[in-house]
Amino acid sequence: MATLSPSSSSQTDTPRSRTPDLPKVVLKAPPRTYTHGGTPLSPADYSATASNPISTQKYPRISKPVPMMRPSYDCVVIGSGYGGGVAASRCARGGKSVCVLELGQERWPGEYPVSAIDALKELHISGNTGENTKEVCDMTKGDPTGLYHLILGEGQNAFVANGLGGTSLLNANIFLEADKRTMEIDSAWPEELREDGALKKYYQRAREMLQPVPYPEDHPELMKLNLLKKQAEKTGHGDKFYRPPQTTFFEDGINAAGVEMKASTLSGQDCTGVNDGSKSSVLMNYLPDAWNWGAEIFCECEVRYVKKDPSGKGYLIFYAWHGNDRNRADFKDLFHNELMWVHAKELCFLAAGTLGTTEILLRSKEIGLKMSPRVGNGMSGNGDILAFGYNTDETANALGRQNPPSDDAHRPVGPTITGIIDMRGEDVAENVLDGFVLEEGAVPEALGNFLQAMLELTPGKVYPEDNSSRSGFDRLRKFFAKAGTKMMGPYTPGSSVNRTQVYLIMSHDSNEATLTLEEDKAYLRFLGVARDPHVQQLNKFLAKATHAVGGVLVNSPFYAFKYAGLGEELITVHPIGGANMSYDGTGDVGVTNHMGEVFTGEGSEVHDGLVCVDGSVIPCALGVNPFATITAIAERSLDLIAKKNGFTIDLETKNGKLDLLNGEPKVKWPLTKDMAEAQQAIRDATGESGVRFAEVMDGYLHVGDEIEDFKVAEKYAKGVGSTARFFLSVDTYSTKNLVTRSDHASIATGTFTCSTLSRDPFMVLRGEVQFFSQDASVSDTKNLVYKLDLLGTNGELLHFYGYKIIDSTMAFSPSQTWKATTTLYVTITRTDKTVVGRGILKINVKNFAAEMKGFGASGGPGTLARLAGIKQFLSFFSLQTAAYFFSPFRTLQYIAPAIRSASSLLPKVRSAIVTVVMAQDQVGSKVHCWNPTIVNPELPPILMVPGASVDEQIFALPTINTNAVDFFLGKGYRVYVVTHRVGKTEIAKHGYTTYDARLDIKAAMEHVISSTKQESMYCIVHCAGSVAFSMGLLDGTIPTSWVKGMTASQVFFTPKFATVNMMKARSPVSLPAVYKKLAGSDWFDCVSSTNDALVQRITNQLLRFYPAGGLAEICNSTTCHRSELVFGRLWSHKNLNSATHSHLPNILGGVTMKALENLMYAGTHETVVDNEGNGLVTEENLARLKDLPILFIHGSRNAVYTPESTEMSLAILRDAFGPQKFVEREVFPGYGHLDCWMGKDAHKEVFPRVLDHIEDVLRPSTKGSASDKVTN
After folding, report:
1. pLDDT tens digit string along 143-171?
2. Could you read off the pLDDT of 310-362 as tens digits, one per residue?
3. What is the b/e burial string over 293-310, where b = at least 16 CB atoms within 10 angstroms of the residue's CB?
């Protein structure tokens, strides 16, 4: 890849709206002035100025579609939480090209679920139930890209978020540093981090970006906050209570990254996503900052493993793409095996969250990346405990509500956490491992209606010891409180849920959890964590705090798992570890060093550029909310990594207000041509609806260029096991553009695998899929075309060209239709266009079913528009397919489009001279002459004579790359073509016969002799021209001395009709006579129009069903049909390209019934006669042909004259004169009649054979004899 250089656009720097002042005095600082309120963000809030036009999209999208991904970046960041956001921002500010890969989707405030139904759609469950000694059940359910991810583990479960911004989207925002004693644990932390103040400046960097502040004193009182304060006081720990700083905005303003923030509406919805725009998640700061500095972000990319680049430079990151409405995931056998990849040239940062990063490392190790055996060990749940103080004596109001009624405005829920009882000090925890924090919480609205039932049904409740002695009034109040919830809902003041306090404890655990891969799935074990004596002490503390306010302690709902025999009862929202920093600087006791670099084994050597920057590196429980420490450690790692790798992070330049909806980033990396085209296609589809689907085709690919036939290549490849497959996602961003614009292709993204070419998959980015494009190489055929650039992990670039053939062979055959639409003929080439291999790929029934299951709509403003897009595509596809399935009923083609516009015609050398020569009966004929660039007087001129109803065009076609005139001119020959009186000329309407046409040939030969001053010429004569020429030679009209040699094409003096022609000619009713009677004319024109007489229009309709020689010969050209009626099928359609077939009305003329009767007589009697019926093949006449060099050529599939026609002529000459020099015969397999001259490949197969004969004739010393062969 060429090195990219970014372009920058100027932005007005504006000061931050505020700079948080949160060192030690933060908790005692006087409250600032806040503007209470805030509303859900509108599109205008994301735009830099109110005057900016508002786009049709409602929310920003700083991520890009995966088809816009580059194959290589300086830095790749896996994950987008705190560590990932830091890595992306700092590398981008360091001038590096950055790619961010995120498993989840991009969602902005206003898009987060509120109701239980919507939230349930976003729930993804993974992991197992059961214990190690019992049967374990895989519990994977839901969308892996869903916002909420519940991991079921043994001993403890975990809850994290998937989405752009990671768990920061759902956490409770509490920004607290790890205490000094925790950071000094020498059996956990590296020496570099045990130093006093090691993280001080990095915590400050995190503060400057995240801007935490405590809940303001002048804001409305929060009942749950007051309740926690009361509990602290009643338990004797009032001095340990305070309002912790949190990353919530309580005033409108611009944040440190330049993003518009709104004041919190105090909804308590943090755990399902805050929709008011107040939450300072990574999505609102580090990621927009990275975007503004050029980082390119891609969502729904599940990274599976990392490998060293084969070149030794950088890393290959392999991922499964969940995009396109997850339709790729419907291919279950392939989804996690046929992986896409991106190359990190310098740095790869693992920031997929504790569990995600650890799983990636385990998979990477499994496939050969060397690392410490400690990976997946030493994990922790950060000592998390979730519990509830149910139905207390006090109102907690801890149930979140996005849109409370106006009468509830005076009692808001507040942010999820606003208060803390901090029990980490030495005065209450002599042993650092006994320290913990207790924070109050809020239950989101989505769970509100279920909370009462969950709390009532959860076993293991801890009641106050004096519960039985409580007054009857207290008991009655509690009874009515429960009834109030059931009858009037959980928000009812005084109800049991309204009086429930939510607790979250963070403490220290044993750090003995593990994550392993079992049957390719992650298995999380927190062995014995719930039985830890420390946990029992914490439960006692919770019970004491709860009982102090008259409540019942209810454990986490997962406590029920224990009683169901499915495991233990804890849950953590802060899993950490798995890629632990080593306390001794080696891989013997850790996975990463103090900078997060991954060890290569048990020693101190690391993988340069492979760095973990998330919670996975934290080596022990922190006893407090961990994200501040994770962010600070990530800031430190990036600082040190930048210094090690020689780049400087620009931390001084501030962003102006970012326009995330309509604006462009400050730094933009240049687009390649294919990226620009893909981007334009996407932009062209703005507001349009499209379709998307995933497709898998597999088969066999022969590697090598020696086999040209696809079926032979497939057969050989199958024998040696050279399999191939592609796995593509196809996006048709605008169905309208696809249907109406011939230049519009769908965009294909995915992989191509062929083990014979590479052990790794080839990446396909921005490939093209064209539906029903006209096949220019074959007549009356359409293709489904796949044009894909294949990029190998070794940097090799190959081109994939595949096509499905949609033609008349499908007619009335479901099996052939299936074959046509599911069979792809593939050629792989290098950039220099040399062939790498050929083969055939197919869609099997199983993969087709998966493709149809995942088929769906994309884009479009609303459901109806999306459905309309699907309908339009399916209608287009069905109609195009049906046209060939019911091929005879297609709309007839009368006048070729190419005639109206000559743009499809190829540039050809014009004839130098067009001369009208007069025959001895004073009938004039045109003779065209072409002169070569350099005239060689040693070479004889060539005279070409076409057949009936055609002219010089059959030899000088403007629709094929090399026509006969081109070919022989290129060999130095001067070429003449005569259009005789039965050819495509007005004179033909006068009723002349083929016998009369010999006079025109004689006149043309006289002209050639006169103009070239040569006594003889080589003659190439075709069909009726060949018959006329034979007549002239036999009766002496044309002297044989004028003929140096000749090629007789398809017939000579023994014409024998093919089967259908013979049936017509021998019909008991004279068909020419019938025609003359019905049409009232002796003239039959091969060209027709919709304005013709009724009899002609009826004829055209009847000819739809005329015998065509097989399904492959069905077409919708009236000219083709009519010419077949009078002459027989003139070609094998596969040999004509599309342009030639379209030009038939310009190539063919007509014939009189008299001339046709003359031809029919000869074809049925198998001999030539004069106009009086006298036979011309006599012993005397044959003597004139003695020693005349003749090459007979014939198409094996000729449906006009059977191949016996030329075979009989050769046999008669051989019987008369014995073997003669240069009297030969060649049959060309697969060719018909006129396609021997008009075929797209005739210059490769037919013309060279004629040239060989000419050159043999010109070499008198060459010995030769009569021969008869078929070309293979």
Report:
1. 899 999 998 888 888 999 999 999 999 99
2. 888 899 999 999 976 667 888 888 888 889 999 999 999 999 999 999 999 99
3. bbbbbbbbbbbbbbbbbe
Rounded Cα distance between 1 and 765, Å, is 14
Nearest residue to 19 via CA among 282, 204, 171: 204
Number of Cβ within 10 Å of residue 1271's Cβ equals 15
* 1191 DSSP assignment: E
3-state SS assignment for residue 14: coil
Q: Map tokens 């300086």 to a residue.
A: 74
Say which residue, 22 or 79, is predicted with more confidence: 79
Query: For the chain, what is the largest distance between any 2 Cα atoms, rounded to a whole number of angstroms?
Result: 141
Whether residue 778 contacts residue 797, with contact meaning beta carbons closer than 8 Å, is answered with: no
Coil, strand or helix at 862: coil
Residues linked to residue 306 through DSSP beta bridges, in sequence order: 317
Separation between Cα atoms, residue 699 and residue 137, nearest integer Å: 36
Residues in CB range of 983: below 8 A, 6 or more apart = 946, 947, 948, 949, 950, 951, 997, 1025, 1149
DSSP sequence for 130-186: S-TTS--EE--BS-TTSSEEEEE-BSEEEEEE-STTGGGGTS--B--PPPHHHHT-T
* Displacement of CA 384 from its chain's centroid (Å): 42
Question: What are the structure tokens assigned to 106, written together?
Answer: 């991009």
E strand or H helix at 571: strand 570-572
Contact 1162, 1023 (CB under 8 A): no
Q: Is the pLDDT of residue 30 over 70?
A: no
d(Cα 285, Cα 294) in Å, to the nearest integer?
15
Q: How far apart are CA 136 and CA 326, in angstroms?
A: 28
Looking at residues 1222-1227, what average pLDDT do you find? 94
Whole-number pLDDT of residue 135 = 53
What is the pLDDT, as a whole number, of residue 438?
A: 97
The pLDDT of residue 4: 57
Domain ranges of the chain: 675-888, 913-1056+1159-1258
Three-state SS annotation for 646-694: CCCCCCCCCCCCCCCCCCCCCEECCCCHHHHHHHHHHHHCCCCEEEEEE
Contact 1257, 1222 (CB under 8 A): yes
How would you classify residue 218: left for phi > 0, otherwise alpha for psi between -120 and 50, otherwise beta?
alpha
- The reported pLDDT for the residue numbered 1271 is 47
Instruction: Evaluate whether 930 touches 988 at the Cβ level (below 8 Å).
Output: no
DSSP 53: P
The whole-angstrom separation of Cα 448 and Cα 438 is: 22
Q: What are phi and psi of 920, to 5 degrees?
A: -70, -15
Quote the tokens at residue 1014.
């040569």
The 3-class SS string of 466-478 reads CHHHCCHHHHHHH
CA-CA distance, 941 to 288, in Å (whole number)?
A: 76
C-alpha span between 62 and 349 (Å, rounded): 20
Residues 6+ apart with CB under 8 A from 251: 32, 33, 34, 35, 263
Across 1181-1204, b (16+ Cβ under 10 Å) vs e yields bbeebeebbbbbbbbebbbbbbbe
The per-residue pLDDT for 6 is 65
Distance CA 944, CA 927 (A): 10
Which amino acid is it at 880?
A: Q
Across the strands, what pairs with 842? 698, 823
Question: According to CATH, what is the number of the domain 913-1056+1159-1258?
Answer: 3.40.50.1820
Of these ranges, 159-173, 730-744, 1073-1087, the one predicted with the greatest mean pLDDT is 159-173
Tell me: pLDDT of 487 over 90. Answer: no
Strands 296-298 and 98-101: parallel
d(CA 417, CA 215): 9
- Cα–Cα distances in Å, from 720 out to 295, 519, 712? 45, 31, 13
Pairing outcome for strands 1017-1022 and 1043-1049: parallel
**Cβ atoms of residues 1194 and 1228 within 8 Å:** yes
